[in-house]
């Protein structure tokens, strides 16, 4: 039975971007297009650039929304929004990737990685691989809020989305985007904003 109980914010300030996780508020975990859109927004906010040679001379060579492919005019490299990131080359859907990363960030320490894999519908091997890629550095800001009871009841849920919805977990969108930027390598060698916001899409 779905509960409309208020979600807990653990005494932290209740920011206006702290919203319950649901398909209506955060499609990132339910829908590949939303996930891809968010990744593109966070990664290329400062302008689209080639992940291999940093050129800003880029053209789009297909218009599939989820897997939009670009080509660099300078080095001819074909790339999409996950190229060169820890999400690169995976067969997992992008929305599953985001949910898995959030679950690992938030639930590891409470439950075993195999249980997190089960909730996401991925193999223990995939979950462990993702854990290794994400590393064990905790997020700078706790962006997922939920009750201790929800964590205690994990074994009763079939999927991570069921858990999020039933216990009215909430997510602070701005802090989550910062965490995503960290996963995508934005702000390291990949910082495009310093190169201006030139955008060259044919
Ligand atoms: Zn290039």
From TrEMBL:
Residues of the Transposase zinc-ribbon domain: 31-77
Pfam families attached to this UniProt entry: Zn_ribbon_IS1595
Under InterPro entries, the record lists: Transposase_Zn_ribbon
Q: What is this protein called?
A: Transposase
Tell me which species this is from.
Answer: Rhizobium setariae
């Amino acid at each position: 039975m779905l509960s409309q109980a208020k979600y807990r914010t653990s005494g932290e300030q209740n920011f206006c971007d702290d919203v319950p996780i649901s398909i209506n508020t955060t499609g990132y975990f339910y829908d590949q297009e939303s996930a891809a859109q968010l990744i593109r927004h966070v990664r290329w906010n400062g302008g689209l650039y080639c992940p291999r040679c940093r050129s800003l001379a880029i053209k789009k060579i297909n218009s599939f929304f989820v897997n939009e492919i670009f080509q660099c005019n300078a080095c001819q490299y074909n790339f999409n929004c996950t190229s060169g990131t820890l999400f690169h080359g995976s067969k997992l859907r992008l929305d599953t990737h985001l949910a898995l990363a959030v679950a690992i960030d938030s639930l590891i320490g409470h439950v075993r990685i195999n249980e997190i894999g089960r909730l996401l519908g991925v193999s223990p091997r995939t979950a462990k691989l993702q854990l290794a890629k994400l590393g064990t550095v905790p997020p700078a800001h706790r962006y997922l809020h939920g009750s201790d009871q929800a964590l205690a009841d994990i074994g009763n849920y079939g999927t991570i989305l069921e858990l999020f919805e039933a216990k009215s977990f909430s997510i602070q969108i701005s802090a989550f985007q910062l965490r995503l930027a960290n996963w995508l390598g934005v702000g390291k060698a990949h910082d495009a904003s310093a190169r201006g916001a030139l955008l060259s899409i044919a």
